[in-house]
Design brief:
Blueprint (H helix, E strand, L loop, with lengths): L5 E6 L5 H8 L15 E4 L2 E5 L15 H5 L9 E4 L7 H7 L4 E6 L2 H10 L16 H21 L9 H8 L13 E5 L1
Parallel strand pairs: 1-4, 1-5
Antiparallel strand pairs: 2-3, 5-6
Helix pairs in contact: 4-5
């Protein structure tokens, strides 16, 4: 299977999307040269955040421009996962501007995401920057809006939602990896 240059990757805060991205980046052909010590956050026994995140108040804004996006990688060979919560608001633009790239959506219900984000550190998370959400009420409101946009976009393309497990990775990325835990409230889809 030929992987695209980019996978625009989005899910709401607390959707566990970062762990899913890191798992996919173990598949041969993915580029992780965007990872630096400054672009890392660990919490507890979970993987935390690795690599560049795009969005308001961050090192790079969520701007759908290839030259701008690609500058976060010192080497652009291989598939790059382009992560932003804010892609949820730009999915139609991304689909039009990047027809050869993929869009991956991670869905988890609002309250489960909100609770996990707080458990993972909430506004004390050091990377990426969550300041633009302002407060807990602002975070919950944005989680709801972003999830709604994800669902509407997926519906428009008749996307097939699935659990993130080894069979799904094999079907969509032609590689067999072990997924240690499948979360019953998290669904994923890829729109090509």
């Amino acid at each position: 299977m030929n992987l695209p240059n980019r996978i625009f990757f989005t899910g709401v805060p607390g959707s566990r999307w970062s762990g899913i991205a890191q798992t996919l980046e173990t598949v041969p052909g993915f580029n992780i040269t965007d990872r630096t010590a400054e672009r890392e956050f660990n919490h507890g026994k979970f993987s935390g955040h690795r690599g560049v995140y795009y969005g308001t108040g961050m090192e790079y804004q969520a701007i759908a421009d290839s030259k701008y996006l690609d500058q976060a990688w010192p080497d652009v060979a291989g598939t790059r996962i382009i992560k932003s919560h804010e892609w949820a608001y730009q999915l139609d633009v991304i689909k039009e501007k990047f027809p050869n790239d993929w869009i991956m959506l991670i869905y988890r219900p609002d309250m489960a995401s909100y609770a996990w984000w707080h458990e993972a550190g909430g506004f004390n998370i050091k990377y990426p920057n969550y300041d633009w959400y302002k407060n807990s009420a602002g975070m919950l409101g944005e989680i709801g809006k972003q999830n709604q946009h994800l669902l509407e976009f997926a519906h428009k393309y008749n996307a097939e939602w699935s659990y993130f497990n080894s069979a799904w990775v094999l079907k969509n990325f032609s590689h067999n990896i072990t997924i240690e835990r499948t979360w019953p409230d998290i669904l994923v889809t890829v729109i090509r």
